[in-house]
Amino acid sequence: DTLIVARNLSKVYKMGEVTVEALRGVSFELMEGEMVVVLGPSGSGKSTLLNIIGGMDKPSDGELFYMGTPLHSSDGKQLTSYRRNEVGFVFQFYNLLPNLTALENVLLSVQIARNPLSAEELLKKVGLADRAHHFPSQLSGGEQQRVAIARAMVKNPRLLLCDEPTGALDYKTSIQVLKLLQDFCYTYSKTVVIITHNAAIAQMAHRVFYLKDGRLDRIVENENPLPPE
Ligand code: ADP
Ligand code: ADP
């Protein structure tokens, strides 16, 4: 089924005299259980696009539907509910709270969720059952990112949005994190969108969106998405 429909999205930032067209007429659909990688040079509009899909920002023009619900005309309260219940976010620098343990970081998301999963089960799933009571500073970068993925998933969102999730990790650790994201996509039929600079990641996605100067330049489909090497 179709999860997201975007039609002719544009985003204009105005700063005094300066106007930036961050997105220009971007249209696409995202299917349930699909993994999409967004590639493009710095400044091409990747983060802007992810923020709009995630309900953190609104398009200047165009339409965006989530399971038929128009997000482009939703008010702040509706967008907050959408972000809390339907979307999981994963960031480059993990954004864990330093004074909370791994388990407590995950549990924090449980409190705001409508249909939460078990935090303990998810920590086990990401391979960190024995790290539940460690603080972020006691965990490696890869472990912190896996906690962040558990935190995003515990809300049981249909959509998982990842902004450079492996940007701060070494190659081997990146692969572990990507395999985890792919596993959630395949096993639980989550829609996963990953922004990256790393073209090698593209081979594991069902589709690759290439952004250029705020336009969706082309979409490439992979018949057989590969697990990362
Ligand atoms: P990417 O993620 O591909 O690097 P961004 O979406 O961050 O690209 O940015 C796209 C363009 O929009 C850039 O020119 C950037 O400077 C501009 N931009 C992004 N966010 C803002 C903002 N909050 N205010 C003004 N300009 C912005
Ligand atoms: P990786 O090989 O995944 O990059 P590290 O070599 O950084 O991991 O860490 C190896 C192990 O040591 C990890 O399991 C982590 O839990 C533990 N560890 C890393 N940094 C600290 C720390 N500052 N305090 C306690 N344990 C740590």
Automatic annotation (TrEMBL):
Matching InterPro entries: AAA+_ATPase (IPR003593), ABC_transporter-like_ATP-bd (IPR003439), ABC_transporter-like_CS (IPR017871), MacB-like_ATP-bd (IPR017911), P-loop_NTPase (IPR027417)
Pfam families: ABC_tran (PF00005)
UniProt keyword list: ATP-binding, Nucleotide-binding, Transport
SUPFAM superfamilies xrefs: P-loop containing nucleoside triphosphate hydrolases (SSF52540)
Domain ABC transporter: 4-229
Transmembrane segments: none
Any one Gene Ontology molecular-function term assigned to this protein's record: ATP binding
GO cellular component, one term: membrane protein complex
Family: Belongs to the ABC transporter superfamily.
Xref: PANTHER family: ABC TRANSPORTER ATP-BINDING PROTEIN MG467-RELATED, LIPOPROTEIN-RELEASING SYSTEM ATP-BINDING PROTEIN LOLD
Identification of the protein by name: ABC transporter related protein
Organism expressing this protein natively: Thermosediminibacter oceani (strain ATCC BAA-1034 / DSM 16646 / JW/IW-1228P)
